[in-house]
Amino acid sequence: MTANQTILMCEPGHFSVDYVINPWMENQTGMVDRARASRQWERLRTILSDFIKLAFVPSQPGVPDMVFTANAGLVHTGKVIVSRFASQHRRAEEPLIRAWFEENGYAIADWPQHVAFEGAGDALFDRKLPILWFGHGFRSDAAAAGAIERAISCRTVALRLVDPRFYHLDTCLCPLEGGWLLYYPGAFDQESLDKICALVTARKRIEVDEADALQFACNAVNLGKAVILNHASEKLIAHLRREGFDPMLTPLCEFLKSGGAAKCLTLKLSE
Ligand code: ARG
């Protein structure tokens, strides 16, 4: 067990693809096999429960993407920034998320409601440096970087996303324990790649190729040495093992139809 850590999940009872707000959802409306999604989610939950405490926000009809709790908000030392979704489709999640955090004793940070911010989907704490990697370009507004700094007093490093298939930062970048960084370079503009290279040495940058990125290899949950993810090539598995990590594959293909995988289905409550 990872001491004092909790992850928030939302069971997929009402998960489906009902609208299209990213390229993965195209032609997937009504195509989710919910029984299979439930089995995949249960398996993920079982794996995670070996490492960490879990908490659950109830699923609700009419908010089929609520299962992706990474987008609920960003938590930092007992305070939460509740997400302000870019898409109208997901805004109905906001009051439900807020109510859960209020009931569970979190302080709610003030947030400028005209600034879109999709929570831990676009904001990832580095596991070594005192920085928050922040992604913008598709969902969260660039202006969210400054608003986050004001709300939770942390230093953000803003990265611009340029490939619509990797519309949230957690689809193409994953900080790992010890200062390693798993990422898909093709998802970023040059200035952002320069920022990454300036902050993380070459040895600690684990570059993922397009084929692995398309299997959501960067959308991984890192708990200690464990790296839990939908899929990874032999090459990537070997690379992770070489650096001392323990990759654990668990299929989440039903969630890929909506543009999400392991990391998207979790939110760390104790950053
Ligand atoms: N269908 C959801 C959306 O487009 C998927 C969200 C995936 N979440 C994530 N953190 N990448 O908003």
Structure write-up:
The chain is α/β, with parallel strands linked by helices and 271 residues long. 25% of the residues lie in helices and 21% in strands. The protein is built from 8 helices and 15 strands. The strands form 5 sheets. Strands 2-1-15 form a 3-stranded mixed β-sheet, with helices on one face. It has a 3-stranded mixed β-sheet with strand order 3-4-5, sandwiched between helices. The chain has a 3-stranded mixed β-sheet with strand order 6-7-8, with helices on both faces. A hairpin with a 2-residue loop joins β12 (221-223) and β13. It is globular.
Question: What is this structure, in a nutshell?
Answer:
Helix content is 25%, strand content 21%. The protein has helices spanning 34-49, 88-91, 93-103, 144-152, 190-199, 210-214, 234-242, 253-256, and strands at residues 6-9, 53-56, 73-76, 79-82, 107-108, 123-125, 131-136, 155-160, 173-176, 180-183, 205-207, 221-223, 226-229, 246-249, 267-268. Helix 7 (234-242) links the parallel strand 13 (226-229) and strand 14 (246-249).
Produce the secondary structure layout:
Blueprint: E1 6-9, H1 34-49, E2 53-56, E3 73-76, E4 79-82, H2 88-91, H3 93-103, E5 107-108, E6 123-125, E7 131-136, H4 144-152, E8 155-160, E9 173-176, E10 180-183, H5 190-199, E11 205-207, H6 210-214, E12 221-223, E13 226-229, H7 234-242, E14 246-249, H8 253-256, E15 267-268
Parallel strand pairs: 1-2, 4-5, 7-8, 10-11, 13-14
Antiparallel strand pairs: 1-15, 3-4, 6-7, 9-10, 12-13
Shape verdict: globular
Topology, number of strands: 15
Q: Strand order across the biggest sheet?
A: 2-1-15
**Which range best describes the helical content: under 10%, 10-25%, 25-40%, 40-55%, 55-70% or over 70%?**
25-40%
Rounded to the nearest angstrom, the radius of gyration is 17 Å
The averaged pLDDT comes out at: 97
Q: Which stretches are low in confidence, meaning pLDDT under 50 for 5 or more residues running?
A: none
What is the count of helical runs? 8
Instruction: Briefly note the structural class of the backbone.
Output: alpha/beta
Bound molecules: arginine
Q: What order do the SSEs take from the amino end to the carboxyl end, as H and E?
A: EHEEEHHEEEHEEEHEHEEHEHE
Query: What distance lies between the first and last C-alpha atoms, to the nearest angstrom?
Result: 16 Å
**Residue share in β-strands:** 15-25%
Largest sheet entry: 3 strands, mixed
